[in-house]
Design a protein that fits this description.
By secondary structure, this protein is of the alpha+beta class. Helices cover 43% and strands 13% of the residues. Strands 1-2-3-4-5 form a five-stranded antiparallel beta sheet. A hairpin with a 4-residue loop joins strand 4 (136-141) and strand 5 (146-150). Helix 1 (2-15) runs parallel beside helix 8 and helix 6 packs antiparallel against helix 7 (102-108). The longest helix is centred in the N-terminal third of the chain and has 14 residues, at 2-15. The mean pLDDT is 91.
Length: 167
Amino acid sequence: MKTILQQISKLAIQLNRTTFTDEQIKSNWLGTTAASNEAILAAESRLGIKLPDDYKRFLSITNGFFTPRDATEPTFETIDKINYLKYVDAFLLEVWNKGILANVGEQLNRAIVIGGLNDEQYFFLIPPKGANSKWQYWKFANWIPGEEPYLNLESYFLSVLDFMKKM
């Protein structure tokens, strides 16, 4: 995953240097320093859940990441800022838990926001509901409309990189 994040960083800076800080341009990196194991354990304790391994690998590379793609991608938050959607945007849950939208709302009720706190879109980790289910990875924006699922975190970042290469 680190190679993908490095490629995104380098390409984004090449495409639009004015968007980034001098430090980001100098380092060719849109991430930060890695999260400590203690910070990850503290977040898991605060959330009452064991986070998926691929997300913890991401955090071991960078504790937050600016994901450029024409401002349609969420910025990934530092581990201390992630939280359940119900504590971040209760109104969104209210809207998506009515009528024909309730099946999506049921998933959102469990969603953890790991990206997009100050953006027009979110990136969610949705914990498994039962022993036979897996973590879900969703980019979510009302203008999509609704959820855009990914197999895992790496598949999301690969989609960002693929899109950027076509620009």
